[in-house]
Design brief:
mainly alpha; 4 helices; globular
Length: 114
């Protein structure tokens, strides 16, 4: 795998309120398709992560509606692409540690009732 990409800097100098934020102000009226949105976000926000975010966006938008796929397929696509993105951001070791923490969390442990 290539070099690990640095994590984007987030400006937290202002008070977080949970209310409106400028990063949600997107040019929706200029877009006709999901591809238009994806291309804008790839150029303006996603950068090197665009490949995987595009796959997640497409899976989220179609969510089982494409012939030959299912809801489970699209969820697995999003998880896979998210994992690939985390590898780009912080490496395989970091991803494996995170996934293990999830598996060890009580909500994801196997239960005899499942």
């Amino acid at each position: 795998m290539g070099a690990i990409m640095p994590e984007p800097k987030v400006d937290l100098s202002h008070q977080l309120t949970g209310g409106p934020a400028k990063y949600y102000d997107l040019p929706y009226k200029k877009w006709e398709t999901t591809n238009d949105m994806g291309e804008y976000l790839a150029k303006e926000r996603w950068g090197p992560y665009s490949l995987h975010f595009k796959d997640m966006l497409k899976a989220l938008v179609r969510f089982g509606a494409k012939d030959g796929t299912s809801m489970r397929y699209d969820i697995e696509k999003m998880i896979y692409s998210g994992c690939r993105t985390m590898i780009m951001l912080s490496g395989k070791k970091s991803l494996r540690e995170y996934l293990q923490r999830l598996l060890d969390d009580p909500q994801f442990k196997e239960n005899t009732n499942d």
